[in-house]
């Protein structure tokens, strides 16, 4: 009985990867240090909808409706979205646009004391433009905005799970 070299190599690689702490990006990255959380955004806000999904899928944090009873309150400070001209052709027509999203947030406790200082996330995507395919480019732009929203919420969740919250009652100021 001869043990094939490929099987031995695959076993070695699996042990090496498991031993170094490697895990996929989505696995375990959503563990938040809060038992209850309130998201201070309108019910129909796209960021709120996506953020609620991610928080609920993390498993250990419950979304509550009352900010006073929540251990952490997510507050949006700024949501700025811009579409600017990136380049023009020889005739002066737009060839490319840049989509920019700047988002600032912070986390406070039920008393309004700051737990996580304001954080800023800046995203940008470039999109080509063609006068003959306006409808297709409009759909492509919508997909890019949606992709940027998804990326934004992923970054928010990573920051919320990585940043260690401070206890505002222990601060000297």
How would you portray this structure in words?
The model has no long low-confidence stretch (mean pLDDT 85). A five-stranded mixed sheet has the order 2-1-3-4-5, with helices on one face. Helix 2 (46-58) packs across helix 3 (134-162). Helix content is 33%, strand content 31%. By secondary structure, it is α/β, with parallel strands linked by helices.
Summarize it.
This protein has 173 residues and is an alpha/beta fold. The chain contains three helices and five strands, in the order αβαββββα.
Instruction: Count the E strands.
Output: 5
Could you tell me the radius of gyration in angstroms?
Answer: 22 Å
CATH class: Alpha Beta
Instruction: Indicate the proportion of strand residues.
Output: 25-35%
Distance between the termini: 72 Å
CATH homology-level superfamily: Lipoprotein like domain
What is the name of the CATH architecture? 2-Layer Sandwich
Q: What is the share of helical residues? A: 25-40%
Overall shape: flat
> Count of DSSP helices?
3
Order of helices and strands: HEHEEEEH
Q: Provide the structure class.
A: alpha/beta
CATH fold group: Double Stranded RNA Binding Domain
Uncertain runs:
none
């Amino acid at each position: 009985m001869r043990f094939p070299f490929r099987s031995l190599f695959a076993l070695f690689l699996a042990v090496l990867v498991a031993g170094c702490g490697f895990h996929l990006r989505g696995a375990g990255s959503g563990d938040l240090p809060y038992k209850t959380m309130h998201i201070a955004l309108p019910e129909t806000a796209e960021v709120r909808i996506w953020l609620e999904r991610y928080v609920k899928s993390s498993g250990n944090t419950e979304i509550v409706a009352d900010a006073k009873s929540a251990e952490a309150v997510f507050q949006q400070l700024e949501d700025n979205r811009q579409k600017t001209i990136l380049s023009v052709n020889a005739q002066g027509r737009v060839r490319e646009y840049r989509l920019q999203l700047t988002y600032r947030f912070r986390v406070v406790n039920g008393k309004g004391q700051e737990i996580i200082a304001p954080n800023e996330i800046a995203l940008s995507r470039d999109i080509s433009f063609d006068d003959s395919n306006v409808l297709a480019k409009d759909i492509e732009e919508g997909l890019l905005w949606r992709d940027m929203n998804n990326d934004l919420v992923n970054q928010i969740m990573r920051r919320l799970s990585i940043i260690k919250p401070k206890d505002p009652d222990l601060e000297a100021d």
